[in-house]
Design goal:
With 375 residues, the protein is an alpha/beta fold. It has helices at residues 14-25, 36-56, 69-84, 99-108, 128-134, 157-167, 236-251, 253-274, 300-309, 329-333, 338-342, 355-374, and strands at 2-3, 63-66, 90-94, 114-118, 139-143, 170-174, 191-195, 206-210, 278-280, 290-295, 312-313, 344-348. Helix 6 links the parallel strand 5 (139-143) and strand 6 (170-174). It starts with a strand and ends with a helix.
Length: 375
């Protein structure tokens, strides 16, 4: 299989599995237990928290372990609203956010909150001035992601974070796609979330940074895990795996970005030069692995199926929206035509891809587009 859906998930790195195995086979105690087996597992969790905090550039007590980016986004938005309901009932969310933020914002309407969704420009970027203009006296929360998960376009989070700080608005930054690719904007925001399976770590695990002193309450009630702010038995093996994966990603960041961007650029240049009516969606700075391309006269889902028959895995958008009847909310918010939105395919490269795979994929893509246009 040629796997070009790395924005959806990545394979578990062998070194990460090696780090996790002792906590799956030997140190398998409940980290909250007081006996030796529990203490051994707890030590793995504590060391992992310290390691992640060091990589983030924050304090260990500002790191909370969660099930992934979806929970992180839900906790940030709903936790802030629950803690701030007396101050105001208005929230701002970019229209290109992950469904975790979009749907959470819609949920809060049932509790009397007003929501403003900020559209990007045609390049796929959110204008900080639009965010500031949307703010009100009762705005309590703002979410604009570090880089979009469909186009890879990098957002001006520094400017947006500065605006939020000046106005006293809690700023959450979804860093699911940028963790291990770029330094994280911890100093810019009040909270940010990551998912370990995006950087060759285990699925179902992530971390949420919450700035000390930020006004937020818990989402999941339960025991005293995570300083009483997130109930549920700690997953020691996943915590160790997440820390190992993030540490490795930071260690080879520049090398990996150079390789991946080279593969992506070669692929994009060949596709745009060899397939008429192909359009790269979004412009400006983008993640090194991303290429979202529309093909005139085609349906993106049909291209996906034909490539899949040739053993090539791609996507038509966010994996969390798979099966959805509606078109990409990201490309739609950018103002692209319905035809262009429907014909879009997302190709995302990873560290295990090769130049040979680029050649094979372009060849298969040329045949798939030709076949669909003839029918």
């Amino acid at each position: 299989m040629i796997y070009l859906d790395n924005a959806s998930t990545t394979p578990l790195d062998s070194c990460v599995l090696d780090a996790m195995l002792p906590y799956l086979k030997e140190n398998y105690g409940n980290p909250s237990s007081q006996h030796g087996a529990g203490r051994a597992a707890s030590e793995g969790v504590l060391k992992s928290r310290d390691k992640i905090a060091n990589l983030f550039g924050c304090k260990p007590e500002e790191i909370f372990f969660v099930s992934g980016g979806t929970e992180a986004g839900n906790w940030a938005l709903k936790g802030v609203c629950a803690a701030s309901s007396e101050r105001g009932k208005h929230i701002i969310v970019s229209a290109i956010e992950h469904p975790a933020l979009i749907e959470s914002a819609k949920d809060m309407r049932n509790f009397g909150y007003e929501v403003t969704f900020i559209n990007p420009d045609e390049s796929g970027k959110i204008n900080p001035a639009d965010v500031e203009n949307a703010m009100r006296e009762n705005t309590v929360f703002c979410a604009v992601m570090h880089a979009n998960n469909e186009t890879g376009i990098i957002q001006p989070v520094g400017e947006i974070g500065g605006i939020c700080r000046k106005r006293g608005v809690f700023y959450y930054c979804d860093c699911v796609q940028t963790a291990g690719v770029f330094p994280l904007p911890v100093k810019t925001c009040d909270a940010l979330g990551i998912s370990s399976h995006k950087f060759y770590g285990p699925k179902g695990f992530g971390a949420l940074y919450i700035r000390n002193g930020a006004a937020i309450t818990r989402l999941i009630s339960g025991g005293k895990q995570e300083r009483g702010l997130r109930g549920g038995t700690s997953n020691a093996a996943a915590a160790v795996g997440c820390a190992a994966a993030l540490e490795n990603a930071f260690r080879v960041m520049n090398e990996n970005n150079t390789k991946v961007s080279m593969l992506r650029d070669k692929f994009v240049n060949k596709v745009l030069n060899e397939i008429g009516g192909a359009h790269l969606n979004g412009s400006g700075d983008r993640l090194p692995s991303f290429a979202n391309i529309s093909f005139d006269g085609c349906n993106g889902e049909n291209i996906l199926f034909l490539l899949d028959l040739n053993g090539i895995a791609v996507s038509t958008g966010s994996a969390c929206s798979a099966g959805a009847v509606s078109s990409s909310h990201v490309l739609t918010a950018m103002g692209l035509s319905l035809e262009r939105v429907k014909s879009a395919v997302r190709f995302t490269f990873g560290k295990y891809n090769t130049e040979e795979e680029v050649e094979i994929t372009v060849s298969a893509l040329i045949k798939a587009v030709k076949k669909l246009r003839e029918n």
